[in-house]
Protein backbone atom coordinates (compact mmCIF):
# COMPACT_ATOMS: atom_id res chain seq x y z
CA UNK A 1 0.00 0.00 0.00
CA UNK A 2 1.43 3.35 -1.07
CA UNK A 3 1.41 6.36 1.13
CA UNK A 4 1.46 10.01 0.20
CA UNK A 5 3.25 12.54 2.32
CA UNK A 6 1.01 15.39 3.42
CA UNK A 7 2.52 18.74 4.19
CA UNK A 8 0.81 20.46 7.10
CA UNK A 9 1.29 24.20 7.36
CA UNK A 10 2.37 25.48 10.72
CA UNK A 11 0.18 28.05 12.43
CA UNK A 12 1.41 31.60 12.16
CA UNK A 13 3.10 32.64 15.39
CA UNK A 14 3.05 36.39 16.06
CA UNK A 15 6.54 37.86 15.92
CA UNK A 16 7.78 39.04 19.30
CA UNK A 17 8.24 42.76 18.99
CA UNK A 18 11.47 43.99 20.59
CA UNK A 19 10.99 46.32 23.52
CA UNK A 20 11.92 50.00 23.39
CA UNK A 21 14.81 49.22 25.72
CA UNK A 22 16.15 46.54 23.38
CA UNK A 23 15.92 48.86 20.39
CA UNK A 24 17.69 51.64 22.29
CA UNK A 25 20.45 49.25 23.35
CA UNK A 26 21.01 48.14 19.75
CA UNK A 27 21.58 51.70 18.49
CA UNK A 28 21.31 54.65 20.88
CA UNK A 29 19.54 57.75 19.59
CA UNK A 30 21.31 61.09 19.57
CA UNK A 31 18.97 64.01 20.02
CA UNK A 32 15.32 64.39 21.00
CA UNK A 33 12.89 61.88 19.56
CA UNK A 34 10.10 63.49 17.57
CA UNK A 35 7.48 62.88 14.89
CA UNK A 36 7.00 65.19 11.91
CA UNK A 37 3.39 64.64 10.85
CA UNK A 38 2.59 65.68 7.29
CA UNK A 39 -0.42 67.84 6.52
CA UNK A 40 -2.23 67.43 4.24
CA UNK A 41 -2.36 63.63 4.37
CA UNK A 42 -4.94 60.88 3.95
CA UNK A 43 -8.36 61.06 2.36
CA UNK A 44 -8.81 63.44 -0.56
CA UNK A 45 -12.18 64.77 -1.67
CA UNK A 46 -12.53 62.22 -4.48
CA UNK A 47 -11.85 59.27 -2.18
CA UNK A 48 -14.20 60.56 0.52
CA UNK A 49 -16.93 61.01 -2.11
CA UNK A 50 -16.45 57.48 -3.48
CA UNK A 51 -16.48 55.77 -0.07
CA UNK A 52 -19.55 57.75 1.04
CA UNK A 53 -21.27 56.80 -2.21
CA UNK A 54 -20.86 53.11 -1.36
CA UNK A 55 -21.96 53.64 2.25
CA UNK A 56 -25.07 55.51 1.07
CA UNK A 57 -25.80 52.88 -1.57
CA UNK A 58 -25.81 50.26 1.19
CA UNK A 59 -28.04 52.45 3.35
CA UNK A 60 -30.63 53.11 0.66
CA UNK A 61 -30.48 49.98 -1.49
CA UNK A 62 -29.41 47.35 1.05
CA UNK A 63 -26.79 44.65 0.67
CA UNK A 64 -25.34 43.38 -1.49
CA UNK A 65 -23.94 46.35 -3.35
CA UNK A 66 -21.47 45.40 -6.07
CA UNK A 67 -18.39 47.50 -6.78
CA UNK A 68 -16.33 47.07 -9.94
CA UNK A 69 -12.65 46.94 -8.90
CA UNK A 70 -11.63 48.33 -5.51
CA UNK A 71 -13.59 51.49 -4.77
CA UNK A 72 -10.27 53.04 -3.71
CA UNK A 73 -6.86 51.43 -3.36
CA UNK A 74 -6.80 50.70 0.36
CA UNK A 75 -6.96 47.32 2.10
CA UNK A 76 -8.68 48.65 5.23
CA UNK A 77 -11.42 50.44 3.27
CA UNK A 78 -12.11 47.42 1.09
CA UNK A 79 -12.29 44.89 3.94
CA UNK A 80 -14.44 47.24 6.05
CA UNK A 81 -16.94 47.66 3.23
CA UNK A 82 -16.96 43.92 2.54
CA UNK A 83 -17.97 43.38 6.16
CA UNK A 84 -20.97 45.67 5.55
CA UNK A 85 -22.18 43.75 2.52
CA UNK A 86 -20.19 45.07 -0.43
CA UNK A 87 -19.06 42.58 -3.06
CA UNK A 88 -16.05 43.64 -5.10
CA UNK A 89 -15.78 42.23 -8.62
CA UNK A 90 -13.29 42.59 -11.43
CA UNK A 91 -15.77 42.92 -14.29
CA UNK A 92 -19.46 43.63 -14.88
CA UNK A 93 -20.00 40.03 -16.02
CA UNK A 94 -19.66 38.93 -12.37
CA UNK A 95 -22.62 41.10 -11.33
CA UNK A 96 -26.09 39.49 -11.51
CA UNK A 97 -28.28 41.02 -14.19
CA UNK A 98 -30.31 43.94 -12.89
CA UNK A 99 -28.19 44.39 -9.76
CA UNK A 100 -26.59 47.62 -8.55
CA UNK A 101 -22.93 48.23 -9.35
CA UNK A 102 -20.73 51.16 -8.33
CA UNK A 103 -17.86 52.25 -10.57
CA UNK A 104 -14.71 53.01 -8.59
CA UNK A 105 -13.07 56.38 -8.04
CA UNK A 106 -10.47 55.59 -10.71
CA UNK A 107 -13.00 55.76 -13.55
CA UNK A 108 -14.05 53.42 -16.33
CA UNK A 109 -13.98 53.41 -20.11
CA UNK A 110 -17.10 53.83 -22.28
CA UNK A 111 -16.90 50.12 -23.05
CA UNK A 112 -17.41 49.30 -19.35
CA UNK A 113 -20.40 51.66 -19.16
CA UNK A 114 -21.89 50.00 -22.23
CA UNK A 115 -21.36 46.48 -20.88
CA UNK A 116 -23.24 47.45 -17.71
CA UNK A 117 -26.12 48.78 -19.80
CA UNK A 118 -26.15 45.58 -21.88
CA UNK A 119 -26.61 43.54 -18.69
CA UNK A 120 -29.34 45.81 -17.38
CA UNK A 121 -27.26 46.84 -14.38
CA UNK A 122 -28.16 49.83 -12.26
CA UNK A 123 -25.06 51.97 -11.90
CA UNK A 124 -23.60 54.63 -9.64
CA UNK A 125 -20.55 56.35 -11.10
CA UNK A 126 -18.17 57.25 -8.25
CA UNK A 127 -15.37 58.37 -10.59
CA UNK A 128 -13.37 61.21 -9.06
CA UNK A 129 -14.38 64.46 -10.80
CA UNK A 130 -10.71 65.22 -11.45
CA UNK A 131 -10.39 61.94 -13.35
CA UNK A 132 -13.60 62.73 -15.23
CA UNK A 133 -11.98 66.02 -16.31
CA UNK A 134 -9.10 64.10 -17.90
CA UNK A 135 -11.57 61.76 -19.64
CA UNK A 136 -13.37 64.76 -21.15
CA UNK A 137 -10.09 66.24 -22.31
CA UNK A 138 -9.19 62.97 -24.04
CA UNK A 139 -12.52 62.97 -25.89
CA UNK A 140 -12.17 66.61 -26.92
CA UNK A 141 -8.59 66.32 -28.15
CA UNK A 142 -9.44 63.18 -30.10
CA UNK A 143 -12.29 65.03 -31.83
CA UNK A 144 -9.79 67.78 -32.67
CA UNK A 145 -7.65 65.10 -34.37
CA UNK A 146 -4.80 65.51 -31.91
CA UNK A 147 -2.76 62.50 -30.86
CA UNK A 148 -2.59 62.07 -27.08
CA UNK A 149 0.51 60.93 -25.24
CA UNK A 150 -0.94 59.61 -21.97
CA UNK A 151 1.68 59.60 -19.23
CA UNK A 152 0.84 56.90 -16.70
CA UNK A 153 1.21 53.30 -15.66
CA UNK A 154 -0.31 50.86 -18.11
CA UNK A 155 -2.66 48.46 -16.32
CA UNK A 156 -3.70 50.99 -13.67
CA UNK A 157 -7.51 51.35 -13.65
CA UNK A 158 -7.34 55.10 -14.18
CA UNK A 159 -5.10 54.79 -17.22
CA UNK A 160 -7.31 52.04 -18.67
CA UNK A 161 -10.35 54.26 -18.30
CA UNK A 162 -8.74 57.34 -19.86
CA UNK A 163 -7.20 55.32 -22.69
CA UNK A 164 -10.60 53.76 -23.38
CA UNK A 165 -12.10 57.18 -24.15
CA UNK A 166 -10.00 57.51 -27.33
CA UNK A 167 -7.89 54.40 -27.91
CA UNK A 168 -7.33 55.16 -31.59
CA UNK A 169 -5.84 58.55 -30.69
CA UNK A 170 -3.84 57.65 -27.56
CA UNK A 171 -0.40 56.22 -26.82
CA UNK A 172 0.54 55.36 -23.23
CA UNK A 173 3.99 56.45 -22.07
CA UNK A 174 4.96 54.57 -18.90
CA UNK A 175 8.38 55.97 -18.05
CA UNK A 176 11.33 58.07 -19.25
CA UNK A 177 12.73 55.15 -21.24
CA UNK A 178 9.53 54.90 -23.29
CA UNK A 179 9.47 58.68 -23.70
CA UNK A 180 12.86 58.40 -25.43
CA UNK A 181 11.66 55.76 -27.91
CA UNK A 182 7.93 56.30 -28.50
CA UNK A 183 7.04 56.80 -32.16
CA UNK A 184 4.20 58.98 -33.46
CA UNK A 185 2.79 59.53 -36.93
CA UNK A 186 2.34 63.29 -36.70
CA UNK A 187 4.84 65.01 -34.38
CA UNK A 188 3.29 68.38 -35.25
CA UNK A 189 -0.07 67.56 -33.65
CA UNK A 190 0.61 66.12 -30.17
CA UNK A 191 -0.75 66.85 -26.72
CA UNK A 192 0.00 65.16 -23.40
CA UNK A 193 -2.27 64.10 -20.55
CA UNK A 194 -1.33 62.26 -17.36
CA UNK A 195 -2.56 59.90 -14.71
CA UNK A 196 -3.69 62.08 -11.81
CA UNK A 197 -1.79 60.19 -9.10
CA UNK A 198 1.71 60.36 -10.56
CA UNK A 199 4.61 62.05 -8.88
CA UNK A 200 4.73 65.62 -10.18
CA UNK A 201 8.49 65.30 -10.70
CA UNK A 202 8.08 61.99 -12.53
CA UNK A 203 5.46 63.37 -14.90
CA UNK A 204 7.43 66.51 -15.71
CA UNK A 205 10.62 64.54 -16.34
CA UNK A 206 8.75 62.53 -18.96
CA UNK A 207 7.19 65.67 -20.45
CA UNK A 208 10.59 67.34 -20.84
CA UNK A 209 11.99 64.27 -22.62
CA UNK A 210 8.99 64.22 -24.95
CA UNK A 211 9.23 67.97 -25.62
CA UNK A 212 12.91 67.66 -26.52
CA UNK A 213 11.94 65.09 -29.15
CA UNK A 214 8.67 66.74 -30.21
CA UNK A 215 9.00 70.54 -29.86
CA UNK A 216 5.38 71.10 -30.98
CA UNK A 217 4.04 69.00 -28.06
CA UNK A 218 1.12 70.88 -26.48
CA UNK A 219 0.30 71.11 -22.79
CA UNK A 220 -3.21 70.36 -21.50
CA UNK A 221 -5.26 73.45 -20.55
CA UNK A 222 -4.77 72.66 -16.86
CA UNK A 223 -2.54 70.46 -14.74
CA UNK A 224 -3.80 66.87 -14.62
CA UNK A 225 -1.93 65.89 -11.46
CA UNK A 226 -4.48 65.76 -8.64
CA UNK A 227 -4.27 68.61 -6.12
CA UNK A 228 -4.18 66.03 -3.31
CA UNK A 229 -1.27 64.16 -4.91
CA UNK A 230 0.63 67.44 -5.30
CA UNK A 231 -0.11 68.57 -1.75
CA UNK A 232 0.87 65.28 -0.12
CA UNK A 233 4.11 65.17 -2.06
CA UNK A 234 4.77 68.80 -1.11
CA UNK A 235 4.45 67.97 2.58
CA UNK A 236 6.79 64.99 2.22
CA UNK A 237 9.36 67.18 0.43
CA UNK A 238 9.30 69.55 3.41
CA UNK A 239 9.68 66.76 5.98
CA UNK A 240 12.14 64.43 4.22
CA UNK A 241 15.37 66.45 4.73
CA UNK A 242 14.67 66.56 8.48
CA UNK A 243 13.73 62.88 8.85
CA UNK A 244 15.89 59.89 9.71
CA UNK A 245 12.91 57.71 8.82
CA UNK A 246 9.66 58.32 6.91
CA UNK A 247 6.69 56.00 7.31
CA UNK A 248 3.94 56.23 4.69
CA UNK A 249 0.61 54.59 5.46
CA UNK A 250 -0.99 53.22 2.31
CA UNK A 251 -1.55 50.08 0.25
CA UNK A 252 0.82 48.54 -2.28
CA UNK A 253 -1.58 49.13 -5.18
CA UNK A 254 -2.04 52.79 -4.27
CA UNK A 255 0.05 54.69 -6.82
CA UNK A 256 0.14 57.90 -4.83
CA UNK A 257 1.17 56.09 -1.62
CA UNK A 258 4.04 54.31 -3.36
CA UNK A 259 5.15 57.63 -4.87
CA UNK A 260 5.27 59.23 -1.41
CA UNK A 261 7.92 56.71 -0.35
CA UNK A 262 9.94 57.46 -3.48
CA UNK A 263 9.62 61.22 -3.03
CA UNK A 264 10.74 60.96 0.61
CA UNK A 265 13.93 59.18 -0.43
CA UNK A 266 14.57 61.55 -3.34
CA UNK A 267 14.30 64.57 -1.04
CA UNK A 268 16.64 63.45 1.69
CA UNK A 269 14.99 60.97 4.06
CA UNK A 270 17.56 58.46 5.27
CA UNK A 271 15.01 55.64 5.03
CA UNK A 272 11.35 55.34 4.02
CA UNK A 273 8.84 52.49 4.18
CA UNK A 274 5.19 51.92 3.30
CA UNK A 275 2.82 50.00 5.59
CA UNK A 276 -0.89 49.26 5.53
CA UNK A 277 -1.16 48.99 9.31
CA UNK A 278 0.87 49.91 12.38
CA UNK A 279 1.56 46.27 13.23
CA UNK A 280 3.60 45.97 10.00
CA UNK A 281 6.19 48.42 11.28
CA UNK A 282 9.50 46.77 12.07
CA UNK A 283 10.90 48.27 15.28
CA UNK A 284 14.45 47.80 13.96
CA UNK A 285 13.66 50.79 11.74
CA UNK A 286 13.88 52.93 14.89
CA UNK A 287 17.51 52.04 15.65
CA UNK A 288 19.49 55.28 15.86
CA UNK A 289 16.48 57.29 14.63
CA UNK A 290 15.64 60.61 16.25
CA UNK A 291 13.10 62.06 13.82
CA UNK A 292 10.28 60.10 12.14
CA UNK A 293 8.19 61.57 9.34
CA UNK A 294 4.66 60.23 8.95
CA UNK A 295 2.21 60.66 6.09
CA UNK A 296 -0.50 58.70 4.32
CA UNK A 297 -1.79 58.26 0.81
CA UNK A 298 -4.96 59.88 -0.50
CA UNK A 299 -7.08 56.76 0.08
CA UNK A 300 -6.07 56.17 3.72
CA UNK A 301 -8.46 56.73 6.66
CA UNK A 302 -6.99 58.87 9.45
CA UNK A 303 -7.59 56.12 12.02
CA UNK A 304 -4.71 54.14 10.50
CA UNK A 305 -2.34 57.08 10.93
CA UNK A 306 -3.38 57.50 14.55
CA UNK A 307 -2.57 53.83 15.21
CA UNK A 308 0.93 54.43 13.82
CA UNK A 309 1.35 57.44 16.11
CA UNK A 310 0.34 55.33 19.12
CA UNK A 311 2.98 52.73 18.26
CA UNK A 312 5.60 55.43 17.79
CA UNK A 313 4.71 56.88 21.19
CA UNK A 314 5.39 53.46 22.74
CA UNK A 315 8.94 53.72 21.40
CA UNK A 316 9.52 57.20 22.74
CA UNK A 317 8.31 59.28 19.81
CA UNK A 318 5.59 61.08 21.73
CA UNK A 319 6.42 64.60 20.57
CA UNK A 320 4.38 65.23 17.40
CA UNK A 321 4.82 68.33 15.26
CA UNK A 322 2.35 68.76 12.41
CA UNK A 323 4.06 70.19 9.33
CA UNK A 324 1.39 72.06 7.36
CA UNK A 325 2.27 72.95 3.77
CA UNK A 326 -1.22 73.47 2.32
CA UNK A 327 -4.85 73.79 3.34
CA UNK A 328 -7.54 71.74 1.63
CA UNK A 329 -11.22 72.65 1.62
CA UNK A 330 -12.38 70.98 -1.59
CA UNK A 331 -15.64 69.00 -1.50
CA UNK A 332 -17.34 67.13 -4.32
CA UNK A 333 -21.06 66.46 -4.50
CA UNK A 334 -22.17 62.83 -4.49
CA UNK A 335 -22.90 61.02 -7.78
CA UNK A 336 -26.10 62.32 -9.38
CA UNK A 337 -27.73 58.87 -9.50
CA UNK A 338 -27.31 58.56 -5.74
CA UNK A 339 -28.40 62.12 -4.94
CA UNK A 340 -31.75 61.50 -6.65
CA UNK A 341 -32.35 58.37 -4.56
CA UNK A 342 -31.34 60.12 -1.35
CA UNK A 343 -33.52 63.16 -2.06
CA UNK A 344 -36.55 60.97 -2.74
CA UNK A 345 -35.94 59.18 0.57
CA UNK A 346 -35.65 62.44 2.52
CA UNK A 347 -31.96 61.95 3.30
CA UNK A 348 -30.56 65.44 4.02
CA UNK A 349 -27.03 64.34 3.11
CA UNK A 350 -27.97 64.51 -0.58
CA UNK A 351 -27.15 68.24 -0.43
CA UNK A 352 -23.47 67.72 0.38
CA UNK A 353 -20.67 65.39 1.36
CA UNK A 354 -20.11 64.53 4.99
CA UNK A 355 -17.14 62.54 6.24
CA UNK A 356 -17.08 58.81 5.57
CA UNK A 357 -17.87 56.46 8.43
CA UNK A 358 -14.47 54.80 7.83
CA UNK A 359 -12.45 57.87 8.81
TrEMBL record:
Textual note on the cofactor: Binds 1 [4Fe-4S] cluster per subunit.
The residues that the entry says bind dimethylallyl diphosphate are 73, 106, 156, 254-256, 299
| Cofactor (UniProt) | [4Fe-4S] cluster
Q: Which residues bind [4Fe-4S] cluster?
A: 44, 128, 226
Pfam families named in the record? LYTB
List the GO biological process terms.
dimethylallyl diphosphate biosynthetic process; isopentenyl diphosphate biosynthetic process, methylerythritol 4-phosphate pathway; terpenoid biosynthetic process
Alphabetical UniProt keywords: 4Fe-4S, Iron, Iron-sulfur, Isoprene biosynthesis, Metal-binding, Oxidoreductase
| E.C. code | 1.17.7.4
The keyword Nucleotide-binding belongs to this UniProt entry's keyword annotation: no
What GO MF annotations does this protein's record show? 4 iron, 4 sulfur cluster binding; 4-hydroxy-3-methylbut-2-enyl diphosphate reductase activity; metal ion binding
What NCBIfam families does this protein's entry cite? ispH_lytB (TIGR00216), PRK01045.1-3 (NF002189), PRK01045.1-4 (NF002190)
User: InterPro entries, alphabetically?
Assistant: LytB/IspH
Entry protein name: 4-hydroxy-3-methylbut-2-enyl diphosphate reductase
**Metal-binding among keywords:** yes
Q: Could you tell me what reaction this enzyme catalyses?
A: dimethylallyl diphosphate + 2 oxidized [2Fe-2S]-[ferredoxin] + H2O = (2E)-4-hydroxy-3-methylbut-2-enyl diphosphate + 2 reduced [2Fe-2S]-[ferredoxin] + 2 H(+); isopentenyl diphosphate + 2 oxidized [2Fe-2S]-[ferredoxin] + H2O = (2E)-4-hydroxy-3-methylbut-2-enyl diphosphate + 2 reduced [2Fe-2S]-[ferredoxin] + 2 H(+)
Q: Which family does it belong to?
A: Belongs to the IspH family.
| Residues that, per the record, bind (2E)-4-hydroxy-3-methylbut-2-enyl diphosphate | 73, 106, 156, 196, 254-256, 299
Q: Which Gene3D superfamilies match?
A: 3.40.50.11270, 4-hydroxy-3-methylbut-2-enyl diphosphate reductase, catalytic domain (3.40.1010.20)
Amino acid sequence: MSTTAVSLSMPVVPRRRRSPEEVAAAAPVTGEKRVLLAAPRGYCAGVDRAVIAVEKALEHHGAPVYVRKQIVHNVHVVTSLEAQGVIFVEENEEVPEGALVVFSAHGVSPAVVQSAADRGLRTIDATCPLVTKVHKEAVRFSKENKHILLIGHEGHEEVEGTYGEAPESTTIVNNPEEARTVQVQDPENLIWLSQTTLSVDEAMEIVEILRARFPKLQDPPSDDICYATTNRQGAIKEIAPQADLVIVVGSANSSNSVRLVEVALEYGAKASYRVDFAHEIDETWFEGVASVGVSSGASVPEVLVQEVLLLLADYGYASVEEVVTAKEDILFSLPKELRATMKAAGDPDYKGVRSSNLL
